[in-house]
From TrEMBL:
Organism: Nocardioides faecalis
One GO molecular-function entry: acid-thiol ligase activity
Location of the AMP-binding enzyme C-terminal domain: 419-511
Keywords: Ligase
PANTHER family associated with the record: LONG-CHAIN-FATTY-ACID--COA LIGASE (PTHR43767), NONRIBOSOMAL PEPTIDE SYNTHASE PES1 (EUROFUNG)-RELATED (PTHR43767:SF1)
Official protein name in the record: Acyl--CoA ligase
AMP-dependent synthetase/ligase domain: residues covered: 11-368
Pfam families, per database record: AMP-binding, AMP-binding_C
Length: 524
């Protein structure tokens, strides 16, 4: 098989072309053949605008089946889709474009307003139908376009994720590394035959995560890799989920813990009959939440551990559960074919049961396109340093104990404290601020802002102690800061909790001590 990821859809068009490959949440359908031909139309349209192999094409698009067509269409000509979150505001969009230097920026009707300010820095084309004043990409036609050959280490796409420190980073993902990750998961997944193909009458998979998220994009590719159709919706919602479950009778799901939380706490009972298992990844799921879901619906929750940079590393399958291999609290068995080591800070490989950083040999990523120093820290001699701490036991089961990185995982999305802090320091009431992640039953973690107030901005006497003011005044300042953050950040980055403190403890070098702050101000 070709290394080009577009060969996945071409292969399925050849062996099950009349089977449905894509459903929209509103009932629209496309067969594998139709997806292949429409992707060909996208490929021709991009080529007509001068896009060639290796060029990056930024996609600032509402989540849905059309985004899948643009992924495959770009890959057909060897172009590199840069999937930018549709939740980003204009400033975050501009930063993403600046980091990745795309040849084109594609927007739909919803994103056209945010993109108009970038027209002078990158060619912006609309794929929508409304008259936005932007030139349009003529892509809505079918064409048979064969995928070009690409090297295994050729850049396939750029996804935004966390680096070792600081603001969001753009991760370069390769064609060959993605194929290897898909094949690895297919070998350990239930419901596939020896060739890794689902039965022709297999039920579709719901792609619950957005396609600008590594989990959503990989879920789409995996389903098509094994021959399953996919349902792609705009966003998660319990009512939406209930309607689609009635219509498609899914037999498995891949959810974030946040989604499981909403399902458990919904008043309505969802039709989980026939669902064999729910895979949860993206962040840890609490035991309380897991137990509540399994007791309510009698469906087991499986876990998967991996990352955008490393691919699938470990997890539990239905076969493991039936065989009695499952160990509560673990990340799962290290998958066959995964070359994993646990190392100390000096790079020494540790033995069974010894705790250190998880490192994995992987060709999935070429590093960060916007940060050479962080890339050098991430990938060293072909080994990806995950930043996660843990150990492997004598049975090959991986156990995680924490993260080196300061990243906060809020509802499955990665949030970087420094980005929030930079924004909040622009507010006149904020003298200093530190953002930390604190546990939350629904979101996994939420950002907590520890704020040293500058009340001289409005003539106040200043803060006395941790509360800083009476309750009414504090509530007013919280509302003001929340509104300020929401205007400048995606909603999932806005702090969900606020505390006012007299000062933040600093190291001798002048840096705020994150651990000390957490222990002093956050611990119950």
């Amino acid at each position: 098989m070709s290394s080009n990821l577009a060969a996945i859809i071409e292969g399925r068009a050849a062996d099950r072309g009349e089977s449905t490959a894509l459903w929209s949440e509103h009932g629209g359908t496309w067969t594998f053949t139709e997806v292949d031909l429409l992707a060909g139309g996208v490929a021709q349209a991009l080529s007509a605008h001068g896009v060639v192999a290796g060029d990056r094409v930024a996609c600032y698009l509402t989540n849905g089946p059309e985004l899948a067509l643009f992924l495959y269409g770009a890959w057909k000509i060897g172009a590199v889709p840069v999937t930018i979150s549709s939740l980003y505001n204009a400033a975050e969009l501009a930063e993403s474009v600046d980091k990745t230097s795309p040849r084109l920026l594609l927007v739909d009707d919803r994103g056209s307003a945010a993109a108009t300010t970038l027209a002078g820095t990158v060619e912006v084309l609309s794929i929508g139908t409304a008259d936005s004043g932007l030139p349009r990409l003529d892509w809505r036609h079918e064409a048979r376009v064969a995928a070009v050959e690409v090297a295994e280490d050729a850049e396939a796409c750029i996804l935004f994720t966390g680096g070792t420190t600081g603001r969001p980073k753009a991760v370069s993902i390769t064609h060959g590394g993605t194929y290897a990750s898909l094949a690895r998961l297919a070998r350990v997944s239930a419901g596939t035959d020896r060739q890794g193909s689902a039965a022709p009458d297999a039920r579709p998979n719901l792609i619950a995560l957005p396609l600008f998220h590594s989990g959503g994009q990989h879920s789409l590719l995996f389903a098509h890799f094994v021959g399953r159709g996919t349902v792609v919706w705009e966003r998660f919602g319990v009512d939406r989920l209930a309607r689609l479950m009635e219509r498609h009778r899914f037999d498995n799901f891949f959810f974030l813990p946040t989604m499981v939380y909403d399902i458990v706490h919904a008043e309505q009972d969802l039709p989980f009959e026939g669902v064999k298992s729910v895979l949860v990844a993206g962040q840890a799921i609490s035991w309380t939440l897991r137990r509540q879901f399994e007791e309510r619906y009698q469906v087991p929750i499986l876990v998967n551990y991996g990352s955008t940079e490393s691919g699938h590393i470990a997890g539990w399958t239905g076969k493991d559960m039936k065989a009695g291999l499952w160990k509560p609290g673990s990340a799962g068995r290290v998958y066959p074919g995964v070359d994993l080591e646990v190392r100390d800070d000096d790079g020494r490989v540790l033995g069974v049961g010894e705790e250190g950083e998880i490192v994995v040999r992987s060709e999935l990523t070429k590093g960060y396109v916007d940060d050479a120093a962080a890339s050098a820290e991430l990938v060293r001699d072909g080994w990806v340093h995950t930043g996660d701490m843990g150990h492997v036991d004598a049975d090959g089961v991986l156990w995680l104990s924490g993260r080196k990185r300061d990243m906060i995982k809020c509802g499955g999305f990665q949030v970087w404290p420094e980005e929030i802090e930079d924004v909040l320091r622009e507010h006149p009431r904020v003298r200093d601020v530190r953002v930390v992640g604190v546990p939350d039953d629904r979101m996994g973690e939420i950002p907590l802002a520890l704020v040293v107030r500058d009340d001289q901005a409005d003539g106040a006497d200043g803060a006395d102690g941790a509360d800083g003011a009476d309750g009414a005044d504090a509530d007013s300042v919280v509302a003001e800061l929340t509104a300020f953050a929401r205007e400048r950040l995606a909603h999932f980055k806005t702090p969900r909790r606020w505390e006012f403190v007299a000062e933040l403890e600093r190291s001798e070098a002048g840096k705020i001590k994150r651990t000390a702050v957490e222990l002093a101000e956050v611990a119950p």
